[in-house]
Amino acid sequence: METLDDLLNRILTDGPSPGTLLIVLSKIKDEGNLGRVIQGCLNALNIYPNDIPIRQLLAESYFEAGLLSQAEAELEKVTTQMDDLIPIYKLQAEIYRRQRREGEAIDAIGRYLAHRPDDEDALNLLDTLKPPEKAPITEPEATIEEISPTIEEVEEREIESFEEETSPEIATPTLAEIYFDQGQIREAIDIYEKVVTENPEDDHCRQRLHEMKTMMTADETIEDKGIDKVRRKKEKMIAILEAWLANIQEKAKTVLTVT
To answer: How many Å apart are CA 136 and CA 133, to the nearest integer?
Structure first.
C-alpha cells in the first residue's frame, strides 16, 4: 500500500506544475523536513528557474536552516525578478484610468512610484488622476458690530478667563503639595478638600488636609497676635501724644495769664 510519503515522492518526480510543487514542498516544510524542501526547490528551479514563489520558499528554508548566505543569494534573485515586474503597476493604473476607476488607478500608480519615483510619465499620470483642488470659500467680511463684542460678552469672557486661571482643572494631591511648597497653603487646602470629596476613603489625603488646616489656624492666630501687638503700640503712642498736647496747651494758658 502506497504511503503518503511515497505519494509525495511520486508527485515530485513526475514533473508536476510549479503550483503543485509549491503546495507539496510547503507541506513538507510545515513538517520540519528542511533538507528535503531545499533539495526539492533546487530540483524544481532547474525546471522552472523563473518561478518566484518556489525561489522564495527556498530562501525561507535556507534561512530557517541557518544558511544565511544562501538565503541572501536567493532573495537577491527574487528581488531582481520582482523589479522587472514593477511596470505591471503602471499598466494597471492606465487600465483603471480608462475604466474611470480613479481610486484604484491612484493606488496602482502609487505602488509603481514607490519603486520608480523619478518616472515623469507616472508623475504626470498621478497628477491627472488627483481631483482638482476646490477654491476656498470666501466669506463676507464681518461688520464692526459683528466684530466688536458686547459688554456682556466681554464680562463673560473675563469671568471664564479668571476661572480658568484660578481653578485647577484636576485636583490631585501632587498639585496640592506643589501649592503647599510655594507657601500657598489656602490653595493647597482647597485642592485637598476637592480630593477628599471625590475620594472619601483616602485617609492619607484626609490626614494631610487636617494638618494643613491646623497649620493655617496656627498661622492666623500668630498673625492676629501680631496685629493686636501693633495696635496696642499705636494706642499707647496716641495716648502719649495726647498727654503731651494737653501739657503744651496748659503751659500756653499759664504763659498767657502771666503776661
So the answer is: 9
The answer to whether 133 and 160 are in contact (CB under 8 A) is no
Model pLDDT for residues 155-198, shown as the tens digit of each residue: 566 556 544 544 444 678 888 888 888 888 888 898 889 888 98
pTM of the predicted model, to two decimals? 0.41
Residues 158, 163, 169, 171, Cα dihedral to 10°: 170
* Helix residue ranges, H only, the chain: 4-13, 18-30, 34-47, 52-64, 68-85, 87-98, 102-115, 120-129, 144-147, 151-166, 173-181, 185-198, 203-258
Give the Cα separation of 179 and 195 in Å (integer): 14
CATH ID of 167-259, from 1.10.8, 1.25.40, 1.10.10, 3.30.420: 1.25.40
| CATH 1.25.40.10 residue spans of the chain | 4-84
Just give the CATH number of 4-84.
1.25.40.10
**Matching residue, cell 498661622:** 219
Q: Which residues contact 126 (CB under 8 A, 6 or more apart)?
A: 106, 109, 110, 113
